[in-house]
Design brief:
alpha/beta
């Protein structure tokens, strides 16, 4: 069995040794990608590549894609199904993932950074004048926090924000008997009820750009944090509103079409020069 490690940096030595007992393991070192893929039965991937029709065409023997992610929008699921390829991922591995707090900690961290104007304080060019008032911010205590998507990450965030004294609202089709949160009957109600809006829903084709113009219009003068997937929000309209200074502050860890030529990364980078916009490179789960 031919096993390929497409992004070998920091790959677990324990896992690597175990895989070598199962087959011939090769790590991609930057050679021609199509030559690396052509004889692989199993491929371990992360998020650097989009596994679409063109990519999979170069891997005719592929039987398994292994991805240590909960989201799978970097994989063309229809094409994978058509080719009879199985996917092994972290999606649904709730018991194991309870021990993994990287993404909720990141979300909580960028929320504090937004409210306390850390970016302005860290990067300010005129701090030769010792002036804290130019960075005056806000406390989480007493704020109204809305969480869109109360799954594994959302439930952990409820704990964090309750400890800090916030009032937490949520919207999801999950069990609404969770303690420490008030559930809203619609996304509109949640946005109107909240000062800080955190997007933590799972991405699927059914909720592609579910946060559309109507909902974005309701987000005026609010803090917005998206560490879910870029595709859950109508990005073009959101970027246009960013240019209008529509939001009080924005932190995003994800953008649409990540690692593809047609992404809006250059536009995001240009806008992120503003003090109230934090852009991180999909590092929420990267610890």
């Amino acid at each position: 069995m031919k096993i390929g490690i497409l992004e070998p940096e920091d790959f677990s030595k324990f896992a690597l040794d175990a895989l070598k007992l199962k087959g011939d393991v090769q790590e991609y070192n930057g050679e021609l990608l199509n030559e690396f893929l052509m004889d692989k039965d199993v491929l371990f991937v992360r998020l650097a590549y989009k596994m679409d029709h063109d990519f999979l065409r170069d891997a005719p023997k592929l039987k398994y894609i292994c991805s240590p992610t909960t989201g799978l929008n970097h994989i063309d699921l229809d094409e994978v199904k058509r080719r009879g390829i199985s996917i092994i991922s972290l999606k649904g591995e709730s018991d194991f993932l309870q021990k993994i707090r990287a993404t909720p900690e990141h979300i909580f961290g960028v929320t504090i950074a937004l409210l306390r104007n850390y970016k302005k304080a860290f990067n300010h060019k005129t701090l030769a004048k010792w002036d804290r008032d130019i960075c005056k911010g806000n406390e989480i205590f007493g704020k109204k926090v809305g969480i869109i998507g109360v799954g594994r990450i959302g439930k952990i965030l409820i704990e964090y924000f309750n400890v800090f004294g916030a009032t937490v609202f949520g919207y999801d089709n999950c069990d609404t008997s969770i303690n420490g949160i008030t559930f809203c009957s619609s996304i509109s109600e949640l946005i109107k009820s909240s000062e800080i809006i955190i997007i933590s829903m799972n991405y699927s084709i059914e909720n592609h750009e579910v946060l559309n113009d109507k909902y974005i219009d309701l987000m005026k003068d609010k803090w917005i944090i998206n560490c879910s997937r870029g595709e859950v929000i109508k990005e073009r309209y959101f970027l246009d509103k960013l240019k209008e200074h529509w939001f009080k502050g924005v932190a995003v860890d994800v953008i649409s079409n990540e690692n593809k030529p047609n992404s809006n990364l250059s536009e995001w980078l240009s806008l992120s020069k503003n003090d109230n916009i934090i852009l991180t490179p999909h590092m929420g789960g990267c610890t």
